Amino acid sequence: MALTSPAQAVTFGYPPLDTVKPVADDVFIVDSLLPGAIGRVLPSRMTVIRLPDGLLLHSPTRYSPALMQELEELGPIRHLVAPNLAHWVHLVDWQGACASAVTWAAPGLRRRSPVRKSGVHLDHDLGGAAPEEWGGAIGLAAVPGGMGVQEMTLFHRATRTLVLTDLVVNLEAPMLPAAVRPVARLLGTLAPDGMPPAYVRAVFKLRRRAGAAAMEALLALEPERVIFAHGRWFERDGTAALRRSMRWLLG
Question: What is the Cα–Cα distance from 249 to 235, expressed in whole angstroms?
Answer without folding.
Answer: 22
